[in-house]
Amino acid sequence: MEENLAYCGLICRTCQIYLATREPDEEKQYEMRANIAQEIEKHYGRETKPEDVDDCDGCRTDGGRLFCTDCQIRMCAIKKGIANCAYCRDYPCEALENLFTTDSGAKERLDAIRNDQNSG
């Protein structure tokens, strides 16, 4: 499960930005990016245009395209050298708690990893 898991617990291969990157139909891809832009504005209060939604190969990509270049959670996990936030001694931090309000599935996935880690 962890191979497609972002540091924060999101699953990259089901992320709408990741899927839009792989959409071959340009019209459908633009439509997907427009929907993403609306969601970003709704959840994060950041005005975004479809053209602002860049390609992304997932936050764990090595040298590939990346949408969330300024993601504090990603930068923190890389700096700490951890596979994802479930392995962090500060779990859950404030940044994660904020993310969990919009994606409870991320919390469930990280909690499951953390529980497996602590029981083994």
Per-chain topology:
Layout: H1 16-22, H2 26-44, H3 72-80, H4 94-100, H5 104-119
Structure, briefly:
By secondary structure, the chain is mainly α. It has helices at 16-22, 26-44, 72-80, 94-100, 104-119.
Helix content: 40-55%
Straight-line N-to-C gap: 17 Å
Annotation, overall tally of beta strands: 0
- Calculate Rg over CA atoms: 15 Å
Count of DSSP-assigned helices: 5
**Low-pLDDT residue intervals, each spanning 5 or more residues:** none
Question: DSSP strand (E) fraction?
Answer: under 5%
Question: Overall mean pLDDT score?
Answer: 90
Described by strand count, sense and barrel closure, the largest sheet is:
none
Helix and strand run: HHHHH
Structural class: mainly alpha
Number of domains: 1
Overall shape: it is globular
Task: Give an overview in words.
This protein has 120 residues and is mainly alpha-helical. The chain has one domain (2-119). 48% of the residues lie in helices and 0% in strands. The mean pLDDT is 90.
Summary tags:
mainly alpha, 120 residues
